[in-house]
Amino acid sequence: MGTDGAVMRTSVETVAQIIVSNAPDGWESAWLSGRAEDGYIGDLTADYVHADGSARWFDIPDAADSLQLANAFLKLREEMPGRDKWSKCTFHVFRD
């Protein structure tokens, strides 16, 4: 891992930016999950929760965004300290 965690911070910022930029109008929070499998990230799914509590599943439509997300997840996994790595990662973002 880098001495200041810059790679991890950049990866987290990338994921958050893509979640927010793909959010539908009226969203209050969002969940995004991905699973690490054999050197790639699969099963990218997103759920957005609206102010009334209703949830909406959302597929990241842009291929470039999907690729950026997968790369950010892989970088986060690679930069994790220690021997044990995660197999699934979930982000939860709240709107200000």
Task: Label this structure with key terms.
4 strands, 2 helices, single chain, 4-stranded antiparallel β-sheet, 96 residues, alpha+beta, 34% strand
List the helices and strands and how they pair.
Blueprint: H1 6-21, E1 27-37, E2 40-50, E3 55-58, H2 63-79, E4 88-94
Antiparallel strand pairs: 1-2, 1-4, 2-3
Helix pairs in contact: 1-2
Please provide a written account of the structure.
This protein has 96 residues and is of the alpha+beta class. 34% of the residues lie in helices and 34% in strands. It contains two helices and four strands; from the N terminus they run αβββαβ. The chain has helices at 6-21, 63-79, and strands at residues 27-37, 40-50, 55-58, 88-94. It has a four-stranded antiparallel β-sheet.
**Quaternary form:** single chain
What sequence of helices (H) and strands (E) makes up the elements?
A: HEEEHE
Strand content: 25-35%
What is the SS-derived class? alpha+beta
> What would the average pLDDT be, to the nearest integer?
85
**What is the number of helical segments per DSSP (H or I, 4+ residues)?**
2
What kind of sheet is the major sheet?
A: 4 strands, antiparallel
Question: Would you report the number of β strands?
Answer: 4
Question: What's the short story on this structure?
Answer:
The protein is an alpha+beta fold. The protein has two helices and four strands, in the order αβββαβ.
